[in-house]
Amino acid sequence: MKNNIPLLKRIRESRLLWPLIAWVLILVFDAIVEPGFFKLGIIEDPVYGKHLYGNLVDIFNNGAPLMLVAIGMTLVIATGGIDLSVGAVIAISAAMGAVLINPALGNKLITNDILTKNATNTPLPIIVLADIAAGTLCGLWNGLLVSKARIPPIVATLILMVAGRGIAQLITNGQIMTIYYTPYFWFGNGYILGLPVSIYIVAVVMLLGWILVRKTAIGLFIESVGINAKSTYFSGINEQNVKLLTYAFCGLCGAIAGLILSSYVHSADGNNNGLNYELDAILAVVMGGTSLMGGRFSMLASVIGAVVIWTFTVTVYSMGVPANALLAAKAVLVMAVILLYSDYSRSLITRLFERRRGSQHGTTN
Amino acid sequence: MTDSQNIVRMQGISKSFPGVVALENVDFSLRKGEVHALIGENGAGKSTLIKVLTGVEHPDAGSIELDGNLVQVRSPQHSQEIGISTVYQEVNLCTNISVAENIMLGHEPRRFGSIDWKRMNILANQAVKRLDVDIDVTQPLGNFSVAIQQMVAIARSLEIASAKILILDEPTSSLDVNETNQLFDVVRKLKGEGLGIIFITHFLDQVYQISDRITVLRNGKLVGAYDTASLSRMELISKMLGRSLTELDGVSKARLESEQKKDKQLLLEAKGLGLKGSLEPFDFELNANEVVGVAGLLGSGRTEMANLIFGIDTPDTGSLTIRGKKINRFSPLESLENGIALCPEDRKAEGVVGDLTIRENIILALQARYGWFKFISTQKQYEIAQKYIQLLEIITPSPDQLVKYLSGGNQQKVILARWLATDPEVLILDEPTRGIDVGAKAEIQKLVLKLAEEGKSIIFISSELEEIKRTSHRIVVLRDHKKAAEYPGNVDDHTIIQTMAGIL
């Protein structure tokens, strides 16, 4: 039944194949153009001790927030929805953290001395929980609008996309808040066994997400809703709750991404934290082969999609392209992805595969 | 017969899709001036054969000869260019523009670069006159009946190229008797002009009415080509099904037997159940082991009744009790937990989840009942799927086949399996045999009676009177969104039809 499918065919039909090919292509390009690109070294950090450094480490460390958002976005898109608000959720989560850390919180007398003190009145676990709760609430709000109020997802999440950055600024009182609390920096800058903490966070979220969707019936229900919501409802499945769950999970992922991001840059900026992340996440999901129409999905493939985007970004930077030209360079990537993923080029490649197999074996399977 | 008379000769045509062999070494030939019926159950390969001939699909093997010359039909457009015209089941013309525009679209006569309207109308008029149809071609197409639209479609397909072959793919499925006769007059006229006509239909009456020869396909293989005059109807059906007709007779016998065994035990009761704008309050009782047929014309409230009992719609009056327990919350999940199941009328939109596998489709409702966290293990899923694939004789290479690749009858069985897996007490079947072929119909009818015998109670909704009469112990007739009458299963057709029509 399941295992009779030949290995080659299984590889060819795997969702991971395409994003991996894209990744390898970029890496090959790097190897040719930028001989020092893959250089890895060990460096001694005054705070975090010995750890690896190099472009590859940067790709995973800087790309971690996008990977997280891509994981959440995958489930939303699999139900046939979309979440445009993840960038704003990142900003809200970052703002939440910054405000709670701020030692001036609750103090009547605020001096510059207090503001820049490396201390906080809020315990770190509370800060983390508040971050996550804020993001999850945002996700629930989106989910309620989509599932119960039946507002089209693109409109429903547009509300928070616009309003969210305003909310983030309300939280920080319109200021860009700098964070001066070393333990908080661990999430975005720390290392465990020489590798960035953020990588471990992505791995844990990925694992939890995988257990959530593949070890329970939720994954099946998500796919079923995405393919045919009406049939799914007629089968006795509460499709509203399924959708609600995916948006809440996406909010949760956005919140953790915001935590890492604000920790990495030591500040919260309502206008710029997580800017354009929603679009990058959608691109990552599309690269991962999950259809924007909903249905079958792979979170791991989306994560690889996010890695591709960041490999591309780091490549562009290391070639000396100025940061403000990055978007133009990205457009090239988007175009390449769209062309590569079009039905036309897919059937072309499938036919190539088949012709070769046909000439080798003469028969099919 | 010599080959020179053949306009088309297809030899050894094979075509496979992922997991399915749609055509295997099929031969087909069409002579000049004949109407050739292409017959087979759903999934027999009729439409694939036509798609190969019209260039929609490319055959894996085999050859096509046109007028004795080997051709490769590259695309639908190419097939038109070489004289093959097709008219499909659904009229795919624009109803909002004129008949003339529809006929000439894309081939408009031009004068100084702009469309020559006058000449276009004259040409279009000639085109419909050729079919002995007398209509004003400047009127919008939507003003005419479906039959006329169908003929306009034929006129268009003949106009586009000098067609030698006309393919009619279930052209009569939405026509009434008079309209069908009108269409057949046109077909005979074209036949007289020497066209070869391929006629695909599910209606056997029409096959005998119009065709000269019959090619029968079954499971992607050629059964044979026969002269219509020398093939009796019984022979034709048994060739289509690959088995004898006694099975069909067995259905009604089984019903009579199960009726005798029946002892009345009230299972489901609706009292004054109704919803404004959907169905007026009605009383309804369903006993254990009973099949109750629901008859009525299209729009009489059949599906509305199913939706009310299953909880898709929430009633605003009356009550529904099952096993004496009153139902308060109406939703599919609630019904599922109360042992009520519904196989909906619109199989594609409300039934199957096309991109999921057969296995996933079958366990869907059972999993819904178990909830999110009590996940049915993959191994158990295969066991359940395998069990129902065998029980219901679902034809598929594997339980991992995507449901969208199955034929209509097999999709219906998958939905049935989905609900049977939850072991319901009440099974509502809304048009379970719509759009599926004779053989699968009989199978489903037999299955219904078997299920009733095994203790299930069934509400059987159908627009086919014969089918309701064959299966039901009692018959409820709906008319104009209300329950009009209830009869015992042995009532005569006349009474039911009169009730449906509002005479009784």
The main sheet of chain B orders its strands as 6-9-10-3-11-12
Helical residue percent band of chain A:
55-70%
Strand content of chain A: 5-15%
Please state the overall shape of chain B, judged from the principal axes of the Cα atoms.
globular
Q: How many domains of chain A, as an integer? A: 1
Total number of beta strands of chain A: 6
Radius of gyration of chain A: 22 Å
The chain pair forming the largest interface, with residue counts per chain, is: A-B, 23 and 34 residues
- Average pLDDT of chain B, to the nearest integer? 85
- What is the CATH C level class of chain A, in words? Mainly Alpha
Number of domains of chain B: 3
Radius of gyration of chain B: 26 Å
CATH class of the largest domain in chain B: Alpha Beta
CATH fold-level assignment of the largest domain in chain B: Rossmann fold
**What share of residues of chain B is helical?**
25-40%
How would the global form of chain A be characterised?
globular
CATH architecture of the largest domain in chain B: 3-Layer(aba) Sandwich
Please report which band the strand proportion of chain B falls in: under 5%, 5-15%, 15-25%, 25-35%, 35-45% or over 45%: 25-35%
N-to-C CA distance of chain A: 14 Å
